[in-house]
């Protein structure tokens, strides 16, 4: 596991910066908390965005192949118009009757399997996961949570304590158990379901033996922070069944894979043909506006709602609902998941073609428009593979194309463009990647 909390970051003195950006960084460092970090060796400075593009103060355009939060692209005019129109009328909370809140809730729930029929709104994915854990713990009467080995589920105290991705200084809860994924461990796909189930059952056994019990299996259904380990479809099913046998719930964190990103399905968990008990959503729901949700089966949600108090004044506010409603309308009307599938196939074909000419690409994994591209030879030391991935990312940044890294060793390129990506954007990305690989090869 990488010991650097953010390997792809700016380090003072590493590169020479223009006077304008150096002065801005100095002011930033004087006033912002030290937890803030700038991405890329040479930080980017943007003043506006539109669609697939971000623009710096000099008007230079950067192709965004990294930011999943603006799922419909930056500054989508129709989404912004819905937000502004509602802001000009009223922004109120869920304690008042509001037809649009109910309309949107009904529309959102209809996109899920029939077993999932209730929704509670939040402001962020972190809040969603925090609330989902509260529901699971109350419903099960247990405290234990099982997560993947390099998972990230948010920033509140409760979800940071179940997020090993945040580093050794952020202590995991004693009630957390981490399970290895079959892909990173080199387990053949035919053995992946049994391997994952065995990992989960071992975690359950340990939690029960210590009197903790299992409340939930909480996973990002595309395992993005672990390095985008998505196959084979269905490999999580045995682990989900084991958790339910032990009295726990399955929580699917859909903040990154949801809303059509995987192409074939609206929700990432659908690839595994498993229906969760609770599903958590975050800011892509509002194209970046701070809105999220927990969607789930009525039984655990009603049990929680009638026995525990949950009050979140801004969650489900009328501005957020209007914005999210516009996003869902566009996703469905313009068949955005179909576009994600088509562009994902085009990108995959292009990457496989490049991989035939550059052995620096070790493996390619994707579902729709979510890619993990492993860099470096399998026999190379982990530090060398990580350095190679970071060199690619920063060379492409200098070329005006934005991506980053992920995985335990941060040697996997993380590629997740806005879902409005078109063929010309895919081709520009592929050309930039091949150029970067050629330059680095010497």
UniProtKB/TrEMBL annotation:
One Pfam family linked to the record: Aminotran_3
Keywords: Aminotransferase, Plasmid, Pyridoxal phosphate, Transferase
Keyword Cell division: no
Top-rank taxon: Bacteria
Co-factor(s): pyridoxal 5'-phosphate
MF GO annotations: pyridoxal phosphate binding; transaminase activity
UniProt name for this protein: 4-aminobutyrate aminotransferase
């Amino acid at each position: 596991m990488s010991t650097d909390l953010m390997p792809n970051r700016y380090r003072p003195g590493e590169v020479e910066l223009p006077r304008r950006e150096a002065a801005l960084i100095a002011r930033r460092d004087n006033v912002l908390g030290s937890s803030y970090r700038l991405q890329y060796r040479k930080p980017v400075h943007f003043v506006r965005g539109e669609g697939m593009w971000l623009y710096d103060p000099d008007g230079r355009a950067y192709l965004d192949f990294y930011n999943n939060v603006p799922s419909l692209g930056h500054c989508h005019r129709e989404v912004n118009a819905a937000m502004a129109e509602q802001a000009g009328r009223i922004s109120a909370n869920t304690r008042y009757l509001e037809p649009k809140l109910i309309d949107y809730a009904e529309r959102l729930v209809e996109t899920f399997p029939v077993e999932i029929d209730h929704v509670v709104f939040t402001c962020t994915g972190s809040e969603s996961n925090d609330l989902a854990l509260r529901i699971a713990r109350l419903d099960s009467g247990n405290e234990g949570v099982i997560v993947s080995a390099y998972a990230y589920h948010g920033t509140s105290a409760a979800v940071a304590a179940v997020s090993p991705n945040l580093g050794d200084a952020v202590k995991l809860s004693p009630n957390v158990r981490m399970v290895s994924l079959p892909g990173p461990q080199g387990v053949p796909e035919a053995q992946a379901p049994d391997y994952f189930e065995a990992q989960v059952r071992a975690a359950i056994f340990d939690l029960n033996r210590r009197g903790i019990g299992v409340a939930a299996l909480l996973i990002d259904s595309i395992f993005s922070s672990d390095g985008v380990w998505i196959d084979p479809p269905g490999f999580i099913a045995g682990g989900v069944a084991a958790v339910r046998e032990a009295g726990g719930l399955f929580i699917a964190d859909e903040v990154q894979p949801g809303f059509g990103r995987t192409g074939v399905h609206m929700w990432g968990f659908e690839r595994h043909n498993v229906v969760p008990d609770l599903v958590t959503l975050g800011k892509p729901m509002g194209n970046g506006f701070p809105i999220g949700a927990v969607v789930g089966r009525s039984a655990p949600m009603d049990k929680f709602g009638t026995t525990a108090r949950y009050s979140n004044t801004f969650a489900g506010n009328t501005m957020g609902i209007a914005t999210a409603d516009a996003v869902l309308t566009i996703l469905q009307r313009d068949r955005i998941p179909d576009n994600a599938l088509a562009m994902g196939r085009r990108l995959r074909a292009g990457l496989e073609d490049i991989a035939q000419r550059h052995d620096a690409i070790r493996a390619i994994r994707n579902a729709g428009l979510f890619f993990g591209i492993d860099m470096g030879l399998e026999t190379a030391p982990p530090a060398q593979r990580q350095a190679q991935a970071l060199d690619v990312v920063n060379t492409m940044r200098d070329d005006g194309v934005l991506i980053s890294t992920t995985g335990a060793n941060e040697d996997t390129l993380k590629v997740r463009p806005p879902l409005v990506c078109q063929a010309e954007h895919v081709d520009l990305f592929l050309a930039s990647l091949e150029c970067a690989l050629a330059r680095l090869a010497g």
